[in-house]
Amino acid sequence: MRRFVAPETQQAAADELVAAGAPAVRAVLDVLCDEESPVEWSTSAGVLRRIGRPALEPLMEAMAEAPTQEVARRAGWAYSGLVIDDLAVFEPGLRHPSPKVRSNTAYVMQLKGEEALPYAPRLIEMLTDPDAGVRQRAHWALEGLGPQVVPLLKEVRRSRTAGRLRAPALAALASVGGPAALDERDLALVRRLVRIKMRDEVPEPMHLDGSWFALPTGDRDAVLDAFDLSDPEPVTMRMGAAAWGQEHHGQGWITSSRMYVTPCFNGWTLVFGCPVDDDDAEVRDTVLEWCERLSARFGAAHWYGISCGDGWTAWCVAEHGRAVRYYDAFEEDDQIGTGHPAEEGHLLPHEDGFPEDAFDDLDTSDSDAFRVRYEQVKAELGIPDTCEAPEFAARASVDPSALGPGTRVEGHGVLALTALGREEGHPRGALPI
């Protein structure tokens, strides 16, 4: 049981340890690394951060020899915030035998931004580090250093002796400077690789978090025209999904600078992203307008939305210029139409089919016990499953989260710019091919 210590007393003790400097480092570090200590770990980490330079090597050692991930995390947090003006003292950490130390030191460089430019050559070398985590952290650190590393990355790309470094340097170049930083040779190389990968690519389930349209057509040019999209760039399905995820994950309804237009899946072309350019637009009104306009052109148009974070799910169906169904789990009073065939035999997300007393005698904080009771009551009373956007899409068009080897694929996908994208260009960032 922890004993209460007044904040002012804690602060005074911390100040004394900081004033003691190097002699206090080992004792404070021992407390930091003791997962059973009654002292809050962030308190001891904060003291080490303030002590600064004398704590640097001991924290490197603690990270390298940490018995658990938690201890390594604590030491890394203290290390990344050390109050040290001379960034050069961190440089040995970029070459340390421990990947934990190398990764955390690259993170320090990332936090320093342009100040860390002298260490960019070493960060570039770390793009081929044996440890995948270090490679990723070096990539992020180069992004943090900003556009001034572009010439260095281009030099690596043109070097005949760069060897294995050339490919990750290309990815870093795209992330730091965007497509504009790639010269014609690099762009040609990427496009050639995309063409090769597209030949044998097998559809894979997509992680859904955002909104998309579905149109019963394989006419990609007509789809691009309908959304006022331009500069289409052929992409693999993996690239398209990653682009949508980068721009929309966790954000839901936001204006897109580019949209992913898929190949034709089982007779349906899917369009991921949001073409809206009015920040004040109501989602419902905008969706209805788009679906009705699109359905007048293609015979039908569907829109789906889902958030993996808060339970939001929605869909809209329009046919021949008229919306026949609209549902939003968070706005159930604003529905249009009822009983769409794709919902048949299912509950809507806002509907609760369970009796009010179904869980009265159960500790609902026990998730395992709740799940057992939930399934038991559901089976006994014949309570239907709940229909959400993926389930609706699976019955009405195509469920992107269920794509697989059995999905019929025609053509290839593209990333294309919206009106916003034509003003701002493609977002920076490398995409997996």
Task: Quickly describe the structure.
With 433 residues, the chain is α+β, with helices and mostly antiparallel strands. It is 45% helix and 12% strand. It has helices at residues 7-20, 22-33, 41-51, 56-64, 69-80, 99-112, 120-125, 132-145, 150-158, 166-177, 184-200, 220-226, 237-248, 283-298, 367-381, 389-396, 419-424; strands at 210-215, 230-235, 258-265, 268-272, 300-306, 313-319, 322-328, 409-410, 413-417.
Instruction: Report the mean per-residue pLDDT as an integer.
Output: 86
How much of the polypeptide forms β-strand, as a percent range? 5-15%
H/E series? HHHHHHHHHHHEHEHEEHEEEHHEEH
What is the structural class?
A: alpha+beta
Q: What would you call the shape? A: flat
- Poorly predicted regions are none
Q: Please report the distance between the alpha carbons of the first and last residues.
A: 53 Å
Oligomer: single chain
Number of extended strands: 9
Helix run count: 17
Our Rg estimate from Cα atoms comes to 27 Å
Protein name: HEAT repeat domain-containing protein
Organism: Actinomadura verrucosospora
Pfam family, one: HEAT_2
InterPro entries: ARM-like, ARM-type_fold
Please write out the topology.
Elements: H1 7-20, H2 22-33, H3 41-51, H4 56-64, H5 69-80, H6 99-112, H7 120-125, H8 132-145, H9 150-158, H10 166-177, H11 184-200, E1 210-215, H12 220-226, E2 230-235, H13 237-248, E3 258-265, E4 268-272, H14 283-298, E5 300-306, E6 313-319, E7 322-328, H15 367-381, H16 389-396, E8 409-410, E9 413-417, H17 419-424
Antiparallel strand pairs: 1-4, 1-5, 2-9, 3-4, 3-8, 3-9, 5-6, 6-7
